[in-house]
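=== RUN LOG ===
request id: a7f3
mode: sequence -> structure
chains: 1
length: 420
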Amino acid sequence: MKCNLLVKSSLEVAVTVCKFQQVLNRQVMKSETSTIKIPELDFEIPPEAQRGSLSTVEGILLRAADELEALQEERKKVDPQTAEAIDQFMMKLRACATGDSSFAFILDDPAGNSFIENPLAPSLDPLLTIQAYERTREQVASLGYLVGEPSAETSEGESYNFSDQMQREPHGSVGARAGRRAIAQGNSAEIAEAIFRYTAPEEVMTFPSTCGACATNCDCRMFVTNIPYFQEVIVMASACDACGYRNSEVKPGGCIPLKGKKIKVYVKNVNDLNRDVIKSDTASVEIPEIDLELATGTLGGLVTTVEGLISKISESLERVHGFTFGDSLDDTRKSKWKEFRVRIDKLRSLEEPWTLIIDDALSNSFISPATDDIKDDNQLTFEEYERSWEQNEEMGLNDMDTSSADAAYGSAHVEPSNDG
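=== RESULT ===
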């Protein structure tokens, strides 16, 4: 069963004389489903402890120490040896909270609703890493999501209805019309229009799937469309008739390119804002004029426009850092965020020309030209480059072994002999 992504935030706290207090003052939002770990102390704060709290790194550690200390007098009477061990542990925990020891602060939330502040935002934070991964079935069950399998009777009934529908509808009319309908259902009107602008999607296959919201059976359709000056794009769209849940994924097709690609577009008029953009989930985004840099994977895969990409960046920043505009934020950092929001608005109003850079190590991103021939577009440039070893390692390419597949493919295409 495919599930949504969860988030694990890891803060490597390197204590220095001038900066340790800023690190410990980072705001932390801990939901009731998250776990906090400090590997150096072999310490873990379970989900049921400090649930639903908004604090700082220092505040969480001090609260944990205070809670451990609350029953120390009783422990000393009943189990002096355990009480002494806890006293020694609290000394180490308070040393981390006051900045006398370096440690790693790991916040693991299966629901993805927890957060560690980046005080350098919108710039990258060298101390903070965020890892997204799929929930296990046990984690899905612990969150209370439906994990039951649909009954055999329901599955057979739905399969029958689908087959009956395919028999009534001529195969030749399924492709473009069903493709447009399924993609439009699973996407916003903006994304659907951007995809349909090039070619009518060709349906490749339809296969049964399980709804990620209600676990009933539904159909997922796969389509392929060609983008000029780019490559084939695979669109997987599904819609659940039972609960109304809709979902779609846009993935590049074809083989893995040998080189990465950096795309630059100089935005100076309204036509540039309307350029189509395909940003894959392996691409980073940079706007030098406002010192904005989004790391690889931020915002996921998108089919939008230049203006739409800026809007999504602004909405994402508002959503992630919105709670920091409360009373706990000092005036200096609050004014910094407000100034940055004004600078983003100026990009859309085109008060000054600016540059959009999309760097994709797998060359799966695209910005459409404003002219019929891409060579005549002087504002758009493409730069190919050799991927580094680290980039290949991050994407799992260094250890990829295709020898077995190559051998199987070669044997399948051997010309048959005439010996009988």
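=== NOTES ===
Confidence is low (pLDDT under 50) at residues 1-5, 13-18, 149-176.
The CA atoms of residues 65 and 90 lie 6 Å apart.
=== END ===
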